[in-house]
């Protein structure tokens, strides 16, 4: 009999996708802090026969600077393994000939250096944090309401995330705000968009059922991956809340205390 | 035959309720500016046999200061004729023994002087404008997410309003933001809440079908009033947009260029 439950299904996996914030580290002042055991867990996965990618909705820094931070925290990660929303957004802009008005974190701006931002015909919002002032949100609103066909891109749709000093509102909250203000539906670039997950699967060269997503966000990591045909396991770190385990519509394929425990269970099943 | 259409139904009216911002005046720097003809129109209504009240979602100042501003603009209005959300919210707080965390405009704070705000067990948001900083919204979010039964009151649910220098985001946008962040449904105090309209009808001592609401907001003024059984006429001033006249679900009983035109049509019908 096939072990379709957790951790039995780990035997048939060919690849693992990890979320970053809340799984590998908690963000906060400076670089934030690595979650205990996660540096070693990433190392073990890299030494295994499983393929590994990192899929994040991080939009406070360029991919380059973000990966540099992870390396300073002690993780052996390179930029080509990391999939954030901004490069995917740039591809969409070029493909559709769009000129964005940006409401993003200052640290993300260099990702959009190569695109025309004059006379904008769409708005892109990311996790702008303190840049989500009334003035800035109102400016983005006025751009949208002035367009004949308003187009809003949201880099992720998270509700909140955890920093070392507490929970912080995420981009999805401001996406909902602008959706209501302008009576429109945003296009999400990032998790849980199936297009976004598929780009990672394409890079892995694997089928969804061969891949496991591990994240701390029940809806965007676990639910998003499951929606694409992958397995989804939630860690009890980061933004995890006990009520996630009684969610009315999304049920993780497994729930573990942290990444270290998940990796040990996976590798044990596979006989490492 | 009864003239059930506009302006025929004006013959059977006993009372009129007016919205303020966008109908009597446009807000902006200082006191804002009166909309041409509106001072005279209010005077004509007061001299007629119709009862008159003012129903507003204004939450940037206390009722006293707000009415003082209207009087400086030239309107003959007294505080007892004006129904804003804050006094209604105070009544709810007292009735249910709630202690609010306030995210409102500085000018509104004195309305809540008499209530205990320690160890809050609910959040009240109003049109806080510049006070809707990321830090303040995050603080309100943390109060809500920390409550076992989070209660959010929104003083109105408007999308935006017009000031002399352009459109401004209204409280409803931030209500939607917090609803999404905390996965809850806010309780609206103000238009279009039926409870709120009913309190004005009670004060008038009239039945809904005897009363006309005139406003610039299709959903909150016109739709809200119609939902209570009143007639609703929209003015093409303030936040009015041409697309309002093709709205899929709400159709005004009449649409007029401004309050002056509405009042002239009403009084003509009534043989004044």
UniProtKB/TrEMBL annotation, chains A, B:
EC id: 3.6.1.1
This protein's UniProt keywords: Cytoplasm, Hydrolase, Magnesium, Metal-binding, Nucleus
Places the protein is found: Cytoplasm; Nucleus
Gene Ontology, cellular component aspect: cytosol; nucleus
Main location group: cytoplasm
GO MF, one annotated term: inorganic diphosphate phosphatase activity
Enzyme class: hydrolase
Cofactor section: Mg(2+)
UniProt catalytic activity: diphosphate + H2O = 2 phosphate + H(+)
Keyword Nucleus on entry: yes
Functional description taken from the UniProt entry: Phosphatase that hydrolyzes imidodiphosphate, 3-phosphohistidine and 6-phospholysine. Has broad substrate specificity and can also hydrolyze inorganic diphosphate, but with lower efficiency.
Assigned protein family: Belongs to the HAD-like hydrolase superfamily.
Name of this protein: Phospholysine phosphohistidine inorganic pyrophosphate phosphatase
Taxonomic source organism: Amphilophus citrinellus
């Amino acid at each position: 009999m096939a072990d379709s439950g957790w951790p039995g299904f780990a035997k048939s996996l060919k690849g693992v996708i990890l979320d970053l914030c809340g799984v590998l580290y908690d963000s906060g002042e400076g670089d934030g802090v690595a979650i205990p055991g996660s540096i070693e867990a990433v190392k073990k996965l890299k030494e295994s026969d499983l393929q590994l990618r990192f899929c994040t909705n991080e939009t406070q820094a360029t991919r380059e600077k973000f990966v540099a931070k992870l390396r300073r925290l002690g993780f052996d990660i390179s930029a080509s393994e990391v999939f954030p929303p901004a490069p995917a957004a740039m591809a969409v802009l070029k493909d559709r000939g769009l000129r964005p008005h940006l409401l993003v974190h200052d640290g993300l701006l260099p990702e959009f250096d190569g695109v025309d931002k004059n006379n904008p015909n769409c708005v892109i919002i990311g996790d702008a944090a303190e840049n989500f002032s009334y003035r800035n949100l109102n400016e983005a609103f006025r751009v949208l309401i002035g367009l004949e066909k308003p187009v809003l891109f949201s880099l992720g749709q998270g509700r909140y995330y955890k920093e070392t000093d507490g929970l912080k509102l995420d981009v999805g909250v401001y996406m909902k705000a602008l959706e209501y203000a302008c009576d429109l539906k945003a296009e999400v670039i990032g998790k849980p968009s199936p297009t976004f997950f598929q780009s990672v699967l394409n890079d892995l060269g694997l089928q969804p059922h061969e891949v496991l997503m591990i994240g701390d966000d029940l809806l965007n990591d676990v639910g998003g991956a499951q929606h694409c045909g992958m397995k989804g396991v939630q860690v009890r770190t980061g933004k995890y809340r006990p009520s996630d385990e009684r969610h009315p519509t999304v049920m993780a394929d497994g729930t573990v205390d942290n990444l270290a425990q998940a990796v040990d269970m996976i590798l044990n099943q596979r006989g490492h």
